[in-house]
Amino acid sequence: MLSTGALRAHLLAARLAGAVATSREVSLRSYRLFEARDPRVTIGLDPEWTWKQPDLIALMAERCGVSGDPRHTSGPDVIDPERTLAALDAFAGRLAEAARNRSPVLLGTGHPHRLIGFYAALADALSAAGCAVLAPAHGHSVDITTRFGLRTYNLDYVRGVALVREPGAQGAGHETGAHTHSPLPVRAALAAAADAGGPLPELVVGDHGWVCGAGQLGFEAIGLGDTDDPALFVGEAEGRVSVVVPLDDAVRSDYYRPLTRYVLNRACLSQ
Fold first, then answer.
1. Model pTM greater than 0.85?
2. CA separation, residue 220 to residues 14, 91, 172, 250 (Å)
């Protein structure tokens, strides 16, 4: 069993928390874009409240531990490891509840290169506990606007986890895919599940658009969020996202393995 103290030390050593790679400049830019309701940053969430940049700084200081001083405009952002640990416990609690109820679940990521192993381990454990790990819209096309213009991607599932990849890309069924923040993949998956007559997920697990897009549509969603991802934390504050774990979502994939062990142990899903 990985102790809380050992995980805290790992979070800091791997820069999953503490001083992280995401810069204050990048985070502040995201807050400005969110205030302007830029869809690249709202990623599927339609905020109910008015969020100005000072409000977002205060929220992210509360939820993540970043500096709450608007005059702090440069340098690395900071995540409080205690907030990460508390959120991981809440995250594990929701997984445990889903396992007890044998709830159908949907997992998806916009960070397949970094986070597929984390989510795949959760998918395996939930499946072993009797949950249906859903894979709706497998192979469907999704048109996503990128900085290069409109691009078409295919929805794929790897080890029970949804991701998108460019048509014709090598590695179908392998742990490669495109990085995206878009909510369109989860919308496509949920629409396909509904059109097929269900089952619909009772819990969506993921990041970025997977969490915000599902939460906006009324599905319970939990996931991971970085300091430049205000939409997830706004969704949590407004009650449309159940749990967001603050951490750096783009470190080496093997650095998430201790988090996997911790979460599965806390959820009583260790195999």
1. yes
2. 30, 12, 29, 24
